[in-house]
Amino acid sequence: MPDDATPDVAGAAGDAAARKEHIAFLGLGHMGGPMAVNLVKAGYTVTGFDVVPAAVEAAREHGVPVAASAAEAVAGADVVLTMFPSGQHVLDAYVGAGGQPGLLATAGADTMFLDCSTINVDEAREAARLALDAGHRSVDAPVSGGVVGAEAGTLTFMVGALPEDFETVRPMLDVMGKRAVLCGEHGAGQAAKICNNLILGVSMIAVSEAFILGEKLGLTHQALFDVASAASGQCWALTTNCPVPGPVPTSPANRDYQPGFAGALMAKDLKLALNAVRSTGVAARMGPLASEIYDAFAAEGGAGRDFSGIITDIRDKSGK
Questions:
Q1: Element at 227 (helix H, strand E)
Q2: Each residue of 65-88: pLDDT tens digit?
Q3: I need a labelling partner for 66 at 20 to 30 A (CA). Which of 9, 218, 227, 318 fits?
Q4: Is residue 193 flagged as an active site residue?
């Protein structure tokens, strides 16, 4: 998740210029847009594309060259980086939809397909199989760190790839983030992402419930924070993304829960975790409950708020 570190853009720019890799960056939304900007600043040749005109315009205003279509962006690219909302978007883009050719057919031979979307593990493995069967290479590298991390270049990448392919994309990941972890072969990056966010979703609910309980028992927010942050209750949801204003001035709670990491995205990631729980037969209880809670939060107005805003929902339902 995000911290205050900043990337060594100047040093990375020299390395990128020496490589002269051309990156097609598809998906220029709240996360993808800033990631593409950091690659451009570091000296990479980037051609972007998004189906949303506002995202295209924002990227262009920040110095990212944009193409008129995905096929145009991919032409001549060494790397095709995708940042899409769902696994179906990734698969449709790879193989084509609506009578349009897919990216795998459009790209030159032995292109690196680097998917940074957060999708089902099975979908990530299918995307890798399709890429490999088409004569390309494949890496899944979902991210943690939110919009703040994307803008600052401090994301964490959880990577599923062959070791040699990881080394190929690592310099790009180092420009966009502060840490890249090879978790295993294809699909392992997605597996690590959903496991991590399962922990995060459950822990944020627990931290929020504890603060509401503390309020009922007469504890100040600061008193509870001072104890728990230095005791066994310490966790990222408490010490970095604290759901009450005050103790952590940089947390979204101090800006009316502007994300950050939106409630809709937490609901999505917990559904992915729940899919994996069901497919593997894990006897999970907290994860499914967290998924249910965040589904309701997103449906009842929390979709665009930071996921730590779940505390307001718990407070409202706790009465006076």
A1: helix 221-228
A2: 999 999 999 999 999 999 999 999
A3: 9
A4: yes
* Band of pLDDT at residue 10, cut at 50, 70 and 90: very low
Tell me the whole-structure pTM to 2 decimals. 0.86
Its sign, for the CA torsion 307, 235, 192, 275, is negative
Kindly state the helix (H) or strand (E) to which residue 214 belongs, with its residue range.
helix 188-216
Beta carbons of 228 and 238 less than 8 angstroms apart: yes
Amino acid found at 135: G
Distance CA(50)–CA(81), nearest Å, equals 12
d(CA 178, CA 161): 19
pLDDT band, residue 20 (cuts 50/70/90): low
Q: In this structure, is the dihedral angle defined by the CA atoms of residues 67, 120, 143 and 114, taken in order, positive or negative?
A: negative
Alpha-carbon span 9 to 16, nearest angstrom: 10
Task: Give mean pLDDT, residues 29-35.
Answer: 94
Angle between helices 87-95 and 121-133 (to 10 degrees): 10
Token pair, residue 100, equals 């349009």
Structure-block tokens of residue 265: 């995205």
**In Å, what is the CA distance from 162 to each residue of 141, 247, 299?**
12, 43, 39
| Rounded Cα gap, residues 81 and 62, in angstroms | 18
Residue 77 to residue 93: CA distance in whole angstroms: 16
Catalytic residue chosen out of the listed positions 20, 41, 178, 193: 193
Terminal Cα-to-Cα distance of the chain (whole angstroms): 34
Please name the residue ranges forming H helices in 83-187.
87-95, 103-106, 121-133, 146-152, 163-176
Beta pairing class for 155-160 and 177-184: parallel
**What tens digit of pLDDT does each residue of 167-213 get?**
999 999 999 999 999 999 999 999 999 999 999 999 999 999 999 99
Q: What is the pLDDT of residue 13?
A: 42
